[in-house]
Structure formats: C-alpha cells, structure tokens
C-alpha cells in the first residue's frame, strides 16, 4: 500500500534483464529493428487517475462492515511503519541503492496487507459490488480519471498496438470498472465532426491485486508469470517490473514498449521500457508522489527530458549518455504524450549506433515538418 522526453531506447529482451542490470546502461534491441506499433503500459493510481483509489476501495468494504477500523487508523499504521523503516535506513545516493530501498518496503507492504485482512473489512465484497462502486465513484467524480486517458489509449491501440495496466493497487475489478464507466470512453467529436472510436476496455490487460470477498475478505495472490511456478501479490517496484515483463514478454518484439508512471513504485518499469515517461510538470504543480519520483531520479543521476523534444529536437540525441545513465522522459499530461512524435503515421524504425559508452539514434520524422530523435517514422 503506497500512500504516498525523443528517444526510443532499444532493448534486446525484457526477459533477460536482471535487477542488477539497472546499475549500467540496459542492453539494446537488435540493430535496425522495425517497430510496427506501440505496447503502452501504464500505472493506475496517480497516472490513469489523478489521485489514489485506496481510501475509496477500503471504504467500499467499510460500508458493508462498519464495525471495522476506519481508513484513517489503517493508513496511519502504514505511515508509522514506513517512517520507522525510513528513519533506520541510510538515505540512498545511487540508483542501485534506490532500488534496494524500494525493495526493502516489501515487508512494510506485507504487514499492511495483513493488518487490512485481519479487520475482515472486505468480507462479502464481491466482484459485482466493486465494479458497480467503481462506476458510481467515476460518475460522482470521487475517482477522477486523468483527462485525455481515452485518447492516449486509443492512439496506442491504433493498428496492432496493445495496452496494459500494472498496479500495486488492491482491485483489478475496480480498475476495469473505472475504465468502463468513464464518460471519456464514449468518444469525442474529431475535427470532421464525427465521433472518434472509443476504447474497447476488454482488450486492456489489467494486472493488479484483487479482493476475494467471501467470509474472510482476503486479498488474492493475483498474478502468475509464465516464468515462475507460483502466484504473488504485486507490492513493490520489482514486482511491477516482473509483471510488465510478463505482459510484454509474450509479445513478438515488434512493438515499442512505452511505460507511463508517476511514482517511485514505477521506477523499475520506467527504466526498463523502451520509452519511460514520468508524469509531472513544474515542481510547484507536482503531486507528492511525482515530486518524490523527481527527487529520487535526481539523487540517482537519471537524466530526464521533455517528451516534446521528440518532435522538436534536432540531430542526434543520446539515448544512453556517456555516463551510462538511462534517459527518461517527462510530460505534464496525456495530451503532451499524444502530441509527441511517439504517435506518427507508419512504422517505427530504430537505427542504433554504439561506441561502447554511448548509444545514439539518428532519426527524422517524415510525416511532419520537424526533425526528431528516437526512431524514424516511415
């Protein structure tokens, strides 16, 4: 439970990357690989939504079981546990240390889940109850979907593109309910006055924890990767990477993997995607989670560039600078991503040159009056 810009870097295979590989530049995909479409993977809370959905999920159960502890007491117990660990830990100063710190939160997350399960607050909370509660919350704007989400997903799914959602949140059923109920997905009038095609939510691969309900109100171990023989909850940044690897690992490697997230729990996915995009504009307008991610990347020396540079850049842009630091991108909202050169007509073709310590891509956008780093759209 967490309360709390054009380059298309090429990779060999998400499956072969180990946790330790993040301390240096990730390997590249094969030379001159052609990308026919995009595989977009997004976080949910704080990314597809503007705020966390955990309080609302808990209170769905609380309304059925009002004798249980309040959300305030549950969240405060988590914060106290988190603060104790943070107080006794050495502040990370490198990327490797940041990743170790994030993984050390696993015990905090396990204890949080145990406390919630012990309350039986989700007793008798069924899939239908969660789905209908999500729809009502979206209609009443208790859950705010981030503006432009449907447009972004529709662009990504154009042609042979795919979309996935990976979350440490508590309810995959709630995520599907929110996506299905949002008025944005009905479609919006395009320049020709016709309604644009909406998103088929059934085609979105949603991976998150889930609530079993029943007499005990337990939470399930919700996912099982093809590469392992057991199921596990999604609790940490490392778990999210494993899930994302499983989602895109079944792909035919012809799609550009783009990950969008807003918090430190998204760090490993951001680093391993072909294009990792951090949501958040000017520091004064950032949420707490966005600010925490920004500070983490600064400490770890991870370069960030504005997503608009994909369209407006010139010449060569280093995808893996000579310092061996991974380059991530940032966007203030989904519209900036939609307007970037990530989405252009035709195929994505990467042309990689490596000199051992750096990796650059020479590209241009043939469908627009801009030169752009990253991949050529032909």
Which segments are poorly predicted (pLDDT under 50) over 5 or more consecutive residues? 1-33, 186-195, 311-324, 345-378
Strand content: 15-25%
Strand-pairing-aware structural class: alpha/beta
Order of helices and strands: EEHHHHHHHEHEEEHEHEHEHEEHEEEE
Major sheet: arrangement of strands: 4-3-2-7-8-11-9
Shape label: globular
Strand count, sense and barrel status of the largest sheet are: 7 strands, parallel
Between the first and last Cα atoms, what is the distance in angstroms?
44 Å
Give your account of this protein's structure.
- With 378 residues, the chain is an alpha/beta fold.
- The chain contains 13 helices and 15 strands.
- The protein has helices at 44-48, 54-64, 71-87, 95-104, 106-119, 127-139, 149-157, 172-181, 237-249, 267-272, 288-300, 309-312, 334-339, and strands at 34-35, 37-42, 162-166, 205-207, 211-213, 218-219, 255-261, 275-279, 303-306, 316-320, 327-331, 348-349, 352-354, 359-362, 376-377.
- A 7-stranded parallel beta sheet has the order 4-3-2-7-8-11-9, with helices on both faces.
- A hairpin with a 4-residue loop joins β5 (211-213) and β6 (218-219).
- α3 (71-87) runs antiparallel to α5 (106-119) and α6 crosses α8.
- The longest helix is centred in the N-terminal third of the chain and has 17 residues, at 71-87.
- The protein is globular and about 55 Å long.
- The model is unreliable at 1-33, 186-195, 311-324 and 345-378 (pLDDT under 50).
């Amino acid at each position: 439970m967490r309360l709390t810009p054009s380059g298309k870097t090429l990779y060999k295979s998400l499956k072969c990357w180990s946790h330790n590989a993040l301390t240096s530049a990730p390997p590249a995909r094969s030379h001159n690989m052609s990308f026919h479409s995009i595989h977009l993977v997004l976080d949910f809370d704080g990314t597809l939504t503007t705020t966390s959905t955990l309080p609302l999920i808990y209170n769905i159960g609380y309304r059925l079981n009002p004798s249980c502890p309040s959300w305030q007491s549950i969240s405060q117990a988590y914060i106290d546990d988190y603060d104790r660990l943070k107080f006794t830990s050495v502040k990370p100063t490198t990327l490797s240390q940041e990743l170790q710190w994030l993984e050390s939160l696993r015990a905090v997350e396990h204890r949080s889940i145990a406390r919630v399960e012990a309350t039986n607050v989700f007793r008798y909370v069924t899939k239908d109850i969660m789905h209908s509660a999500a729809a009502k919350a979206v209609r009443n704007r208790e859950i705010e979907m981030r503006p432009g989400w449907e447009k972004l997903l529709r662009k990504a799914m154009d042609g042979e593109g795919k979309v996935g959602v990976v979350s440490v949140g508590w309810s995959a059923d709630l995520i599907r309910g929110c996506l299905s109920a949002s008025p944005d997905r009905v479609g919006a009038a395009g320049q020709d006055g016709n309604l644009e095609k909406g998103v088929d939510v059934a085609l979105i691969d949603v991976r998150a924890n889930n609530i079993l309900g029943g007499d005990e109100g337990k939470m399930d171990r919700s996912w099982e990767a093809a590469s392992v023989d057991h199921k596990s909850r999604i609790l940490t940044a490392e778990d999210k990477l494993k899930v994302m690897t499983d989602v895109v690992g079944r792909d035919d490697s012809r799609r550009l993997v783009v990950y969008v997230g807003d918090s430190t729990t998204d760090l490993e996915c951001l680093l391993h995607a072909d294009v990792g995009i951090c949501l958040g504009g000017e520091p004064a307008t950032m949420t707490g989670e966005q600010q925490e991610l920004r500070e983490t990347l600064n400490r770890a020396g991870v370069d960030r560039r504005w997503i608009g540079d994909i369209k407006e850049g010139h010449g060569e842009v280093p995808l893996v600078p000579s310092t061996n630091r991974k380059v991530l991108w940032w966007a203030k909202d989904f519209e900036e991503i939609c307007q970037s050169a990530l989405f252009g007509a035709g195929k994505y073709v990467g042309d990689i040159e490596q000199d051992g310590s750096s990796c650059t891509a020479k590209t241009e956008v043939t469908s627009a009056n801009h030169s752009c780093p990253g991949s050529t759209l032909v």
